[in-house]
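anyone seen this seq b4? input:
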Amino acid sequence: MMMNKADQIVDCPDGVKCGACSLLRQPYRVQLERKANWLRDALKKELRLSDRQLLSALPSPEVEGYRNRAKMTVSTDRDRRSRLGYFQRRGREVVDAPNCGVLVPELLETTRHLRDLLNSPVRFPFQLRHIDLRCGSDPTLQHLTLVVKAATLPQLPIEAITKACPHVAGIAVNLNTSGGPQVIKGHIDPVVGVREVYVDSAGLSLRVSPGSFFQVNLGILPEIHSRMAEFLGEGELLVDLYAGVGTHGLALRQNFRRVLCVEGVRSSVADARATIKMGRVGNVEILANPIHRVLRHLRSEKPAAVILNPSRVGAEKAALEMIIDSPTRAVAYLSCDPVTLARDLALLIKGGFKLTTVQVVDMMPQTRQVESLTLLRR
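predicted toks r here
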């Protein structure tokens, strides 16, 4: 007899020391309830929220083995013994994570091969600080970015990596001399093999390059897009702000005569344009600039609906004011931070929008990350 997913409990032998998955050993239904409560508490500091508006959490199709990207840190001691894992919670010690259960199994397999290689006679430079490994819809076609803290390219055992890691179809190098928290910063130079991965979404194959953002849980995207499409309906123009590689706007392209995706990151813009060309999509345009630089142009447009998917810092105030001043009748806001979401919703509601529903969409089970989808109507 199969266990109901709501009662499923996931454990990890590395979890206590790592701390990244801080909800381990809790039944999945409890995790969803806690996240819904955290979202409610954050929103109620800024808004009047009824129980009818807060929907029950949208569960992830998978509660482990879902994460399609591994950003891991390399730590090597004087005896050249290496750890490959994550920073300890509230600390800088690297916790080795050979059993990371949230990773797609094929990605986890590759990280184990890399760990073995790091601790073999094969020589890696001490400047190797991080690896950024990701896959698309095919988990056996992976892209690896080696992040090196150096101004010039050191010698890297590329051939040994490709032999040890059969699922790695392409390798790139990022020279990141900064000491900040950003893993990849600056130019990414392809070294061998493919330069990107591909994600099947809404009848298209989306190109995703190493420097581009993409959701880490592919399984939950179809339900998110279904709810967006049902709420936003049909119309002349859909504007997708903070569009990334165009994931959401492209998914809803058949519901609108025109779709305008606004994005300022060059790699994401290039990916979106490549997808449009490969898919022969005729009604989606990319506005390649940060939002604050194209507000004058956006004010001349008359969107029927808007999608917002900003980073953790939330949407820019000027962008929200542009939405308020436009004839937009419906907004779908996909957020990764309840605090900035509450701030932004307060401004939209003050400007004439009504919050229809808000709910957790569990993009990252086992973690404290609270992603949510809010639907608003004029």
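The chain is about 25% helix and 25% strand. The chain has a mean pLDDT of 93. kinda curious what u guys think
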